[in-house]
C-alpha cells in the first residue's frame, strides 16, 4: 500500500475521531472554559484617567521654570565668587559648555557634544586612483 492510499483511507477516520472528541465529549468546551477562567483570574479592569486640569500642568511648568531660574542664579553667584576671589578675575569656564547628559556611558561617542564637527576625512578620498590600486591588491 502506498503512502498516498494509506493517507486517503486514514484521514477521514482521524478527522471523525477528533471531531467526536472535541464536540460530542465536551473537550473543546472545557478547554475554552479553562482559558476564559485563566484570562479573567487575578486581573483588575484597566481604568484610564485623563488629566483635564490644565492648571496643574501650568503649575508644573511654572515650578520647572523657577527651579531652572534658581539653578542659573546659583551658578552665576558661584562663578562671581570664584572670579572675584581667585585667578585674578579670569573666568575659567568662559566659552565652555557642559557635557551632554543624553550620551550613553558605554557609547563610543560618550562625552562628545552633538555639535562637535569631528575630524575632516575628505582629504583621504582625494586621490581615488590610490584607493582603487590598494583595493585591487596591485602595487
Protein described:
The chain is an all-alpha fold and about 140 residues long. Helices cover about 55% and strands about 0% of the residues. The protein has helices at about 5-25, 25-40, 55-85, 130-135. The two termini are about 70 Å apart.
Q: What is this structure, in a nutshell?
A:
The chain is 55% helix and 0% strand.
Q: Report, as a whole number of angstroms, the end-to-end distance.
A: 70 Å
List the helices and strands in order.
HHHH
Approximately what portion of the residues adopt beta-strand conformation?
under 5%
Report the uncertain regions. Answer: none
Helix tally equals 4
Tell me about the largest β-sheet.
none
CA-based gyration radius: 37 Å
How many strands?
0
Give the rounded overall mean pLDDT: 77
Helix content: 55-70%
Shape descriptor reads: flat
- Determine the structural class based on helices, strands and strand pairing: mainly alpha
Set out the fold topology.
Elements: H1 3-24, H2 27-40, H3 54-85, H4 128-136
Give the key terms:
mainly alpha; 139 residues; 55% helix; single chain; 4 helices
